[in-house]
Design goal:
The chain is α+β, with helices and mostly antiparallel strands. It contains 4 helices and 7 strands. A hairpin with a 2-residue loop joins strand 2 (about 25-30) and strand 3.
């Protein structure tokens, strides 16, 4: 996967167009378009102590969720939990274009606060972030 942010967008993307529904469609290459950019915050949790780290990760998310939902341009936030590979992921989606660029320039707040809370939880490891595009098919 690749990262799309305000500094990289101009060098990777070839065409931006606005369709009648006021969605910004971005073309990476012919046939590969998107209208949404997502920022993912993820970590691994431990099944130790009756999955206490998972419960604490959810509490950390709950503590920043109102701030996430107030991000200008916010479309949706999804939480993904995998009991097999012990993933905990939070995916926040914004429309491609100026709204996402502004959030990127603001360092994806409240990202730093949330990641700091995750790193402080016993049993949480591999705290990472990733930016990628989404497009309904």
């Amino acid at each position: 996967m690749f990262s799309v942010g305000p500094r990289i967008t101009r060098s990777i993307l070839t065409k931006v167009s606005t369709v009648q529904s006021k969605r910004t469609m971005v073309t990476i290459v012919d046939g590969v378009e998107f209208d949404t950019i997502a920022r993912e915050w993820r970590c691994k949790w431990s099944a130790d102590n009756d999955k206490a780290s998972l419960a604490e990760a959810q509490k950390a998310l709950n503590s920043v969720l109102d701030s996430v939902k107030k991000i200008d341009g916010f479309k949706k936030v999804d939480r993904v939990v995998c009991g097999g590979c012990l993933d905990f992921k939070v995916v926040t989606s914004l429309p491609a274009g100026e709204k996402f660029d502004a959030w990127s320039e603001a360092n994806f707040a409240p990202e730093a606060e949330f990641l700091e809370k995750l790193r402080a939880i016993d049993g949480i490891s591999e705290v990472e972030t990733q930016t990628y595009t989404l497009m309904p098919m």
